[in-house]
Structures are given as structure tokens and as C-alpha cells.
Amino acid sequence: MTDPVLDHGVVPPVLTPLTPERELDVTSLERLVGFLLDAGVHGLFVTGSSGEAAYLPDDVRYRVLEVTAGVAAGQVPVLAGIIDTSTPRVIQHAYAAKAHGAQALVATAPFYAPTAPPEFPGHFRAIRAAVDLPLIAYDIPVSVHAKLSPDLIAELAADGTLDGLKDSSGDLDALRAVLETAPGFRVFTGSETMADVALFLGAQGLVPGLGNVDPHGYVRLYEAARRGDWVAAGEEQRRLRRLFTLITVGGSRMGRYSSAIGAFKEALVARGILAHGTTSVPMIPLDGTERAAVRARLAEAGLG
Amino acid sequence: MTDPVLDHGVVPPVLTPLTPERELDVTSLERLVGFLLDAGVHGLFVTGSSGEAAYLPDDVRYRVLEVTAGVAAGQVPVLAGIIDTSTPRVIQHAYAAKAHGAQALVATAPFYAPTAPPEFPGHFRAIRAAVDLPLIAYDIPVSVHAKLSPDLIAELAADGTLDGLKDSSGDLDALRAVLETAPGFRVFTGSETMADVALFLGAQGLVPGLGNVDPHGYVRLYEAARRGDWVAAGEEQRRLRRLFTLITVGGSRMGRYSSAIGAFKEALVARGILAHGTTSVPMIPLDGTERAAVRARLAEAGLG
Amino acid sequence: MTDPVLDHGVVPPVLTPLTPERELDVTSLERLVGFLLDAGVHGLFVTGSSGEAAYLPDDVRYRVLEVTAGVAAGQVPVLAGIIDTSTPRVIQHAYAAKAHGAQALVATAPFYAPTAPPEFPGHFRAIRAAVDLPLIAYDIPVSVHAKLSPDLIAELAADGTLDGLKDSSGDLDALRAVLETAPGFRVFTGSETMADVALFLGAQGLVPGLGNVDPHGYVRLYEAARRGDWVAAGEEQRRLRRLFTLITVGGSRMGRYSSAIGAFKEALVARGILAHGTTSVPMIPLDGTERAAVRARLAEAGLG
Amino acid sequence: MTDPVLDHGVVPPVLTPLTPERELDVTSLERLVGFLLDAGVHGLFVTGSSGEAAYLPDDVRYRVLEVTAGVAAGQVPVLAGIIDTSTPRVIQHAYAAKAHGAQALVATAPFYAPTAPPEFPGHFRAIRAAVDLPLIAYDIPVSVHAKLSPDLIAELAADGTLDGLKDSSGDLDALRAVLETAPGFRVFTGSETMADVALFLGAQGLVPGLGNVDPHGYVRLYEAARRGDWVAAGEEQRRLRRLFTLITVGGSRMGRYSSAIGAFKEALVARGILAHGTTSVPMIPLDGTERAAVRARLAEAGLG
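YS: structure for the whole thing
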């Protein structure tokens, strides 16, 4: 591992606040980052899936990174998602992310262009060779439609290509296999709902989208796990699992992602952090009933 | 339909020649476009899947478009793929593509970010509203992991959002449903191997990747179909089906896409059109045995 | 090929009429078989997917076969589906089907137990070796969750294991590959909606579920195709495609199969062939509105 | 819940020993059941997926059940898989299983015939109504190609249809949701490799195929978990995870199931429990190298 920039902890995938005109709401972003830092998070991950990176033009992505790095001011590391379809395009984001203040990079396998596992090692090695920053593999089959196998991760951990894994696959068996094959390798789970189990299995950290809404909860969960108090960690996890059901408020009239990101943003409006709940085109916005449902769930979770 | 820029015919998805250093090989691209025009193709589609668009940085994409539009010089329309993860990013490509000479735009549904069918109409409408060029929907489930339903296409055809459909889904039943629901709507098939059937069902045109290698064959097939000579069309199709097996030369040691694009490029090297068979990172290059197999298949098809 | 028992033609997958108590309605079955024979069908396929074979206890399956063979009385061949999870169980059905009058057997690849393509040849060879009747492979990925590759079919055609293929995969490209690799091999399509295209590509016959409802239409389509009149075949196909939309009357409150089988049976009640529209447990029955919708579609198709 | 027949513990899915002629090897089965009982298992599950139920004719299935119930002689409950394509066929197995000594029944959702979630409740309710034995839902998406949702399970637990769930889905998040929605409901995990985690989350028992080979290991794991010693449970699990890799000895020349069942049987031959490693047609048998690899893994796990 090239750089112990990020060892462990809660690293929320920071949402990207938008104005009603769908421009970056810098003031809200600064407030959100401050809110997360005050809650004691250990790092910040920008321009990931929860940050609507797939919707943001390049200049907005880099501005998000700059603003976040500016507020973080070195207190915690800032990781940048460099999400694009294949290696040459991803490397361009890597350069830009380094220039705009990223301290580590988070890259998926190629997507859209049909690729295959034999081509994955060359992808990650080329990115790592191009830009001298710690590189974290982002395993997110729901978006990439391929799974990074534990053997691939172990191979790229062993030769120093990867500094870590952000596992959003939901496959805890494979997460465990990575930890067994590459002991000490940094694994962060993207799961909101099985965070305690991932830590129990040896994961070092959490990257929960819901951590934008309730960072204190995830910090408590993480601290309980660190001291081996699995009962307390489980208790906190159960509360967060109930809160997490707010992602379904949009029902079947929209995609689940629209519903989830809309609900997270609405919750942060309710908590006074964001000025607007606006999401990117073509996501369908929550209506009044759905927004009220979000607030009801917040209240049930003691955050009302 | 806003503009009869492209009515029918053979519209190859133009390959992107690269130098051994993986820079755009402009001379080879010019030669390739000239080769296709001489063969009598009716349009040119750049920066699509066969054009390695998912691998090309923005500046390379736009340079490919400029070079192609320059050689075409208005003889045939030039369509540009505007491939990106979601609406705001796609719209940026749409502006750029218009500025660099595109006469029509080809856009997929959103990918990577989990989206859902209720969000697809807003996506295509926002693109069409942003840039005044004919818009063709690109249905390619192997890359996007969603299918554009005939009902969606019919709705967007009826309200003028779409000027056409490039169907790379392989679902001929759905293609037929589109043609029944929206009579006269322009449908182009991306299939190399069922082109005659698609024309039999009423499709207006062909966008075959193999059309880079053997444009004369697809023009003959198309002309036979236009005059209703299905026996001759089927005969030509059978020859092209045999030739198309060259895409498997790479076997299981690489992804099928690496094998296919590598084989197409090698065939064009053999035919004296491209200077190099280089493909993008992280595609695995063909080895000597595989390149020889490509040449053998060319010879069998009478192109050696 | 061991026996030219079934050369070509329209071979409806016969529905299984049930009484309101969900016992076999023998009288209705006899009437249905007579209706099909009067319409000029060339064969009868019992205990297939449309025959609710997956729901029928063994004794009911064999009784259906007996009744059908009795009515057919040698006028046309009777094929029997021998649908079960793997080889030893399928072979037991093969013995029983032969004993109850089947003249050919139709078997899928194994399902439920995870199997893999290397195991498929042994499966079909063991069935063929056990019972001396022509064997037809049944390719139905929607149920089996595996596709029989053209190479597998060609191998089993070449060594005499298979006498034919019933292709319910919807993959016309693969159907064409089978016909190219094994010229003269009997291929029957299970498609209701692309029957004309399958015949155009060289398929010898049709096994359309909708052929229970409108056997005359499929016989006309087939005869038009035999005399090379693709315009007339296409015209008939278009009418049948519109009629086929009756399978969606159940909407989303039930599975599509419940809706389709329920609609076929209701249509045959309306036409005076079946006494009841009852379907097997746990299929959800059509309600009054849905039954009326079936009758409306029949009327639109000129069968009211 | 109708009957506390099975409260908790290790319930191996008993393998079905076959002679070289592929008949039931009763002596080996008796020895295997005795071996499991001696190891302290808490129940026995016959004619499940590991028992090759999908391959066994009905009479063999029922003989397996009889033999097992005879050896168990009431010391532990015997559960019977009633695996078939849909409700009426499953109910026939339910009657037979009760007659042959089953104390609880284990049924999947319908498969092969396309069914849909709205039809699942009727399926399980009809089975439960037909035969008065505790009913356990078997969630095995790899075979059934559908997942039983936590909401469905909770609904059928609440109304007394289900007495338990055998979860072979690998989805620990959903398993947790079931336990949260239906507190106290019996959930058994089918996972060999995440058994400790399932118990940590509140599952009451284990149904591990590998438990045929090393029942003592799973009993130790279970007992450690019962006394809350997660470190010891995890240690045992790690050893069993390494042993479990024996399922891949067949590599890619056969399906994974052939490899796994073949390896389990070979391991039991090596341990002196089974007389033969024979598997059902059309599974591909292990060769000498592969059998030696099984023995090497056994030795590494301290079972050589």
C-alpha cells in the first residue's frame, strides 16, 4: 500500500446539493460537509454514486471536489470517484481529481463497453500507473453489471495496484474472502444495512449513503464495533435499518435510485442542512406526500 | 420527424483507427471513410460502440467526428453517438457533436446510475429540447442493461422527440412491434447477421460493425432487399454470417468485444485500409495466431 | 433421423381443459382436439408448457396423452412433453409417454438442479438410448434458464440423438445458425408472433400456443409460407400478432403466464370449445373485466 | 407455528448414496445417517438439493426418506424436501412424504412454469392446507430463479402457513429483514460459508451441504455461537471455508454442482462412510486427479 491516507472509519459518500435550476448549491455543500465533519466522520467520498456523479458534467464534479477539499482542509482525507466508461476516460478524471485536491481515487471496472474479467487487471494497473495517488477499487455490480472477484482484488492488492476496496456488491461472502486472501487489506463496505456485519468480518470502514442523513448514527455504530461491543453496534444498525426504509417513499412511480437520492436530500432539507431537495435530470422528484413520508420516518428515528 | 437527414440505407458504425501509441490515426480514418463512401454507403455513424466511444476521451471523439464530416463533405449524413451515463453529460456531448459537424445524434438510455423506464422519456425529451438536431434512440441492452420498449419508442416517435431508432437489441419481435405501432418510423438494425430479416420486417437501414470490413456486401444485401429479391439478400447474408465468425478469434482469453474489434481492425489492415490494428486500453490485443485466423476467414469470404 | 413421424406443419401445444374442481375435463379436451384436427393441423403436442404440464400430476399428464391420441387416431402424430427436472425423472416420463401413445418425445435440458452445458449431451443421449421414439429438444430458456446452443443441437443432430428442435427461445439468430449448421434438421418455432420469419428462415413447423384459439389462422399462415407467398403470410401474422395481445389482459395483478393461459382458455370458452376457463393452482383466475377484454379482442380478430 | 418439531441446530441436507449402477445404496445411506447422528446433529433434511432430489425418481426419494427415518428412529426430526414444479405436483409429494415418515416439509416456490410473486402465497397456502405437517419455505434462487421476499415470508409466518424458512439465497440482508419482521420465526441458513454470521443475526439453524462431510465442525460452530463465543465460531467457520473450496475440484470441465456433489461424496468415501462416489446422470464424474485433490483438502482440514 502506497499511502496510509485512509485507514478506517466512516466515510460518507457525499451528496451533491443542487439549486432549483440544477446548478451546484455551493453553500449547501459547504454546510453538508461541515455537518459531516462535526459528526466525527473519518473521511469524505465525493462524486460517487450517491453524489450523482453519473449525472454531473465534469466541471461540476471537479467543483464539488474543490469545495469539499476546501472545507475539509486536511482534517480528513477526501476521496474522489473517477467514474467513467473505460480506462482512457477514467485516467483523465484521475488527473483532474488529483489537481482539484483528491487524496485518493475510487474507480470501477469498465462499463457500457462490453468488457471481461481478463481485461480488468490492465484497467486498474493503467490507472494506478498514470496518477500517483492511492487507488481504491469500487465494486458496484448494480451499476457496472460485473463483480470484482476476490481473486482479482487479492492479485491487485498483492502487487500494490490497489490500496483498498469499496464493496457495494452486497456480497458479504466475497468480502470475507477478500479479507481472508489479503489480510490487512482495506475494505470499506457501501452497505447501509449490514455495516455491523461487515465490521464484524474485518472491514475497516463504512461508506453509507444514509450516512449523509445520520452521520452520528454510523459513527456510533463504528465506535461500538471498534470496541467489540457487537450488541450496541447491532442495536444502532437496527435503528438505521428502519430509517433506511425512507428510500422506498417513491414507490413504483419512479426508479429506486430517484426515490433514494430524493429521500436523502429531502431528509437533509428537513434537518436544515440543504436548501433544496432538487435532484438531477431525468430523476423524478418526490411529491408532497412522499416528502411528508420522509419526514415521518426521520421523526420515528429520533431525528425529526 | 424534424429532418429527413437520413432516410435509409447502410450506415456503418465507423471504427476508430489508432496508432501504436494509441493516438487517433487520422490518415487511416480518412482512408476508411473514403473506402466506405466508395462502397456506396448511405451514411456514417461515428463514436458508437464499434467506434470504441466508451474508451475515447472527449477530444478524440470530437476529432473523429470532424475528420469524418470533412471527408464526407456532405455526400452522406454523419451521425454521432453521444454516449454518456446520464442526461446532463449526454447533453454536453450533443452540443459538442453539433459544433463538430454531426447531422444527427444517437443517444442511449441512461446507464451506470440505476435508472428506470419511467425516467427514460424525460431523458430523451431533455436531449431533444437542448439541441436542434434529429435524435435517434440507441437501444443496446448489452451495454445499457435495459431495453427500450416498443411503447416508449412509439410515444417518443409520436411527439416528435425521436427521428429514429438504432436497434442493437437483437429483439426482432420488438423491432416489428415498433414498426407496427409507428408506421413509417425510421428503424435501423445494428445486427450484422439478421440484416435481411430486419429489412424484410420493414426496417429502413443497417448499422453493421462488420460493414467496416465488407461494406460492399452490406450494400449488395440492402439493394437486393430494396428490390424485393429476398433470395439474393439471404444469399449475401449467409456469406456475411460466415465472415462474421471472425469475431470469435480471440476465444476465451479475452472479452468478446476485444476479439471483435481487434478482428475488424486486423481485417482492415489486411485489406490495406488501416495502418495498425491497435485497440484501446484495456482491450487485449490479438496475437499472431489470431491475426492469421482473421486473414483466413477473409480469404474464405472472397476478400483475401 | 430415426423416423419421419413429423415432417412439418402446424403442431399446436394443446391446452389442458379443467373442470371447476380442477380435474381433467375430458369432454372439452376431446372437443378441442377435434377442433384442431378440423382446422387442418399437422400434429399435436401435449403436456408442454401451454398444456400446464408443470402443474399436472403424472396421472393427469398421461390421461391427457391417451385422450388426445385416441381422438387423433393416427391421423396426425402426437408428441408428448416429458418435462421434469433431470435425466432419470425425464426417462420415467419417456417410458410412460410411449406406453400411453406418444409418437415422439419433447424434452428440455435439466432445470432446478444447477447443471451446465457440458452435461447437456449426456442428458439427451441417455433419454434417446432409453426409449426408442424420435426425440425433440425443447429450448425454452424462460423456464429452464439455459439456452441450447446451435453447436450442441448440431452435435446431437449429427449423431442421431435428436430428430428435431422446438425453439421457444425467441432467438431467431440462433435458430438460423441451427438451420445453417444442420441443413434439413427439423426445427419448429414456439413463437406465436414471428412464425412467418421462422418459416422464411427455413423452419419446418410451428408450435404456437395461440394456435389453440385460432388454428385456422396458423394453418393459413403456414400454407402461404409453403407456397412462398410472404406477403400473405405476413398479413396473417400481423392479424395474429394483434390477437396475441389478449395474453396481457391480466395486467400486473398476476403473472404473465396466468394471464396468457387464462386468456387462451377463456377465448376457447367464448368459441364454444371449452366448458370452463379454469386454470391450475396457484394461477390467478381472470376476473369478469378481463374475460370481457378477451372476448373483445376475439371480436376484433374476426373470431367473435 | 403448528409444531415445535424443529427448533434449532444443525440439520444436514443428507446426500443420497448411489451404487455404481446408480441405484440407492441403502447400506451407505444408513452409515451416513448414523455418522451424522453420532456427530450430534439436531435434525436431518432429505431429498433436498444436496440430496440430488431433482435427479431421483419418486420411489427413490421416498425410499431415502424411509431409510433415514428408520435410522433416526425419532431421535431427531426428519424433514423432507418436496421439490417439484408447481402446486398440484408438490402436494402429491407432500402426501407421500408424510406417509413415509417426514415430520416436516420443505417446499420451494414454483419453478419452470413462469410464475410470479402474486401467485406464491396461494402456492404455500394450498400445500399447508393439504397436509398437516409443519411447512418450511425453501428459498433457493439459483434453482428457482425467484427470491422469496421478506414481506412474503412475514405474511405467511403471521397467518401460520409457514413454520420456518430455509434460506439458500445467500442474501443475509434479506435474512435479517425476515428476522426483524417476524421475530422468533425459525430461519435456517443453507450457507456453508456464512453460518456464523447467520447465527449472529439470529438464525436458529444451519443446513450446510458440507455438513455431510464434517458434521462435527458445524456442531462445534453452532455450539460456540449458542454460547455467544463469536471468536470460536469464526475460527471454526474459517476452517470450514477452507475445506469448502473442495467443491471447485472439477474446474470448468463440468458444472459446479457436479463438482460439489462429486467432491462431497468422494470425501465421504475417503472417510469410510460411503462405499461409492457415484452421482446421478447426467452429472460428470470426478476423475482421479480431482479425487486426489479432494483427499488433499480433507487432509489440510485435519480430516484426512
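YS: worth flagging: The mean pLDDT of chain B is 96.
IM: good catch. Also The longest helix of chain B spans residues 58-72.
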